[in-house]
Amino acid sequence: TLIVTLFLPAIGRIFYHNSQGGVYAAIIIIGAIFSSFAFSMATMILQVAGNIKNMAILILADQVIRFVFSLLLVWLGFGILGAALGHLIGAVIIFIISSIVWRSVIHKYRIFPSWRELIKRIKRIDSKRYLGFSLWVAVDKNIAMLYGILPLLLIGFFLSHSEMPIFLYYYSILYPCCLS
To answer: H helices then E strands: how many in the chain?
Structure first.
């Protein structure tokens, strides 16, 4: 994923004759990586520990912090770049909060491993045993996700630069209606 983000500006330049969209997408993807790495582990460990209230607070904080920073930077005049950077800033904040939550939970419950122990154990795992089935599940999930956004991708090839923001605006409004 990180390697693909390096090519996103070039892909934007090829398809839309403007690399800014690729830069925005790269910022959002890097933010998603930051957000999901420690956040996923922290929510899982809170759920296993039975600390559902704190898990719910962390999930809500993730959404609120990213939304507030994105909205604030747009309001300050940074436009789309502000929305993308707000997402990244919020993701970094959630990464830090999730790491603190992880550390506090592993000190309270000794059964959970630290990051260092996890990394040591990853090196000893027989990856073929786990990747055999889960690789196909991940591929299936990603293909299903791509199938869901296929209309958006196809229209992106045929719309002009001036029509794309209008389409994305209406698509974002109507997409939830199409899911039901």
So the answer is: 7, 0
d(CA 53, CA 32): 23
Instruction: Determine the residue type at 126.
Output: D
Contact in structure between 71 and 85 (CB atoms under 8 Å): no
Residue 8 CB contacts under 8 Å (≥ 6 apart), including other chains: 22, 23, 25, 26, 29
What is the Cα–Cα distance from 56 to 43, expressed in whole angstroms?
Answer: 8
CA distances from 46 to 33, 42, 53, 70, 94 (A): 20, 6, 9, 27, 15
Determine contact, residues 136/142, Cβ cutoff 8 Å.
no
Q: Which of 37, 33, 23, 4 lies closest to 85, judged by CA?
A: 23
- C-alpha span between 82 and 26 (Å, rounded): 13
Q: Which residue has the tokens 């800033």?
A: 89
pTM over 0.85: no
> Using one digit for the tens of pLDDT, what is the confidence trace for 3-46?
777 887 888 788 777 788 778 888 888 888 887 778 888 888 88
DSSP label at residue 111: T
Cα distances from 172 to residues 139, 149, 178, in angstroms, run 26, 12, 11
Confirm if 83 and 72 have CB atoms less than 8 A apart: no
